[in-house]
Amino acid sequence: MSKSVLQANGIVKDFPGVRALKCVDFDVNEGEIHALCGENGAGKSTLMHILAGVFKQDSGEIFLDGSLIHITNQRRANEQGISIVYQERSLIGTLSVAENIFAGRQPVGVCSIIKWKQLYDETDALLAKLGIDIGSKTIVNNLSPAMQQMVEIAKALSINPKVLILDEPTATITEKEVGLLFSLLRKLKENGMAIIYISHRLVEIFQIADRVTVFKDGMNVATSEVANINNNWIVNKMVGRELLFERVEHDIKQECVLECKNFNSDKFSDIYFKLNKGEILSFAGLAGAGRTEVMRAVFGADKKTSGELYINGKKVVVKDTRDVIDRGIGYLPEDRKEQGLFLEMAISDNIASASLKPLSKGFNLDQKAINVISEKYRKQLGIMTPSIQQKVVNLSGGNQQKVVLAKWLALNPRIMIVDEPTRGVDVGAKAEIYQILRELTKTGTSIIVVSSDLPEVLAISDRIYVMHNGRITGEIKGSEATEEIIMKYASGLTD
After folding, report:
1. Residue 417 in contact with residue 448, Cβ under 8 Å?
2. Are 377 and 383 spatial neighbours (Cβ–Cβ below 8 Å)?
3. Residue 242 clears pLDDT 60, i.e. is over it
4. Residue 44 to residues 25, 87, 94: CA-CA distances in angstroms?
């Protein structure tokens, strides 16, 4: 019988206006990968923040190796053997791998001078033990997203924890790199480590986890051995119903609203595509294929070396992003937290941020108008919040994504570019976002989707362009697309 390493009993946590955790029980065993899933806002991250010392529970007890512990802060959590890798990376890109892993804990000598050789030697030994092929002196900015994720994990493991918590560790890495991460996790499991694995990617749970617990509305609603369940069991426990991401076929007018001709830069070349009115056009491909770079050039955020852009048949010269916005194009960036939101500002301020001119009276903002439009989209998009004055940082990932969407919908755009629209959101929020996008096309809005999620691309696309190494390698009708065809083009095979 497996030994329980960590137990949380009767955990309750309240925030202003909401009870985030309602008497939650949870445990993880030695040598086990225990997956934790649930819709955004279900309470998963709140519990993990309590275990990691970020929040203090209002009531309930936590036991480590059978002994009651009190986690007062993050340092205390580390001292007691609990380490966490957050979804948002905490690395400093301009520093070396060694400096990041042992930040604040570097070996020092006389006058607190860092012992650099010892630092690098200890880092190399740790990386070698974990099977991570990175040099300790490598600057983090020079690493791929997957290797940066490995550094985050090495940093968490450098304290020799008994429990490792991973929050959406594969959100920004490729399928190939996921295999590398899973190999490391299996090795840690074999060595007896207890691992809590949070993910919205249900397929990963069946690949890596031993048990899975489902959270809903701040409660632990079910726990099961992964071998005894299937995908539908998890979805049903999460949302209370089955979600079928079926294609919805509809006629698309052959009325070109956006045409990109001969776009070139140092990141892509010979890009040509058309977008029709009321169409959902997806760009698929592997990470680094150049999809986001093309869209940023279309939006005026990045410079291109050559190329022409036509909107409704008229050639336009794009000076900057404001010029594109004024022409009726909105853009939801891939990284909503870094590029799409003001996290410490209110929901209403975020929704109004792209529409300041029409929401102003003279030199002052029209707060009444801002509140009216914010309430409109809160209700229309189902943004779960007690108030539009709540800070965006306190929202779940799915609700943050809806706020970004509301920001651009407030401008009544004719064209929407959405980059990774459902990254880091749960299956319920995915279904809602798909429905929102489909409803937009019914009003004549045209949508470009950049996505690395193949089931998503197959579910929502009327047409698909596939990119490889900065070039478009294939165009497929949505009704004729399969994962095999997309992956063939994404790998550069055009025969």
Report:
1. yes
2. yes
3. no
4. 12, 13, 32
Which H or E element spans position 235?
A: helix 231-239
Mean pLDDT throughout 438-443? 88
Q: In this structure, are 332 and 208 located in the same domain?
A: no
For helices 397-409 and 367-381, give the axis angle rounded to 10 degrees: 120
Domain shared by 214 and 302, yes or no: no
User: What are 311-344's pLDDT values in tens digits?
Assistant: 999 999 888 888 898 898 989 887 666 666 888 8
Helix (H) or strand (E) holding 20: strand 18-29
Q: What is the pLDDT of residues 279-306, one digit of tens each?
A: 999 999 877 789 999 999 999 999 999 9
User: In the β-sheet with 463-468, what is the strand arrangement from edge to edge?
Assistant: 329-332, 415-419, 446-450, 280-285, 463-468, 471-477
Q: Are strands 163-167 and 194-198 parallel, antiparallel or unpaired?
A: parallel
Tell me which amino acid residue 438 is.
Answer: R
Give, for 184, the enclosing helix (H) or strand (E): helix 175-190
Domain boundary among 184, 204, 239: 239
In a domain, 335, yes or no: yes
Find the domain containing 470 and state its range.
Answer: 256-490
The CATH number linked to 223 is 3.40.50.300
Question: Which pLDDT tens digit goes with each residue over 94-135?
Answer: 999 999 999 888 888 888 888 999 999 999 999 988 888 899
d(CA 33, CA 439): 40
Name the 3-class secondary structure at 491: coil
- Residues 225 and 300 reside in one and the same domain: no
Cα angle, residue 259 at apex, residues 258 and 263 outer, rounded to 5°: 130
Q: Which amino acid is located at 391 in the chain? A: K
The CA distance from 209 to 195, in Å, is 9
pLDDT digits (tens, 9 = 90+) for 33-86: 999 988 767 888 899 999 999 999 999 999 999 999 999 998 999 999 999 988
In tens, the pLDDT along 138-165 reads: 999 898 777 888 898 889 889 889 999 9
404 compared with 461, residue with greater pLDDT: 461
How far, in Å, CA of 333 to CA of 421, rounded?
8
209 and 304 in a common domain: no
In a domain, 40, yes or no: yes
Q: What distance in Å separates the CA atoms of residue 341 and residue 383, rounded to the nearest whole number?
A: 15
352 within domain boundaries? yes
Question: Is position 379 within any domain?
Answer: yes
pTM: 0.62
Compute the distance between CA of residue 326 and CA of residue 197 in angstroms, rounded to an integer: 43
Last residue of a domain, one of 206, 239, 272: 239
Domain shared by 261 and 206, yes or no: no
Which tokens go with 121? 């030697």
Q: Which of 164, 173, 93, 54 is nearest to 424 (CA)?
A: 173
- The domain tally of the chain equals 2
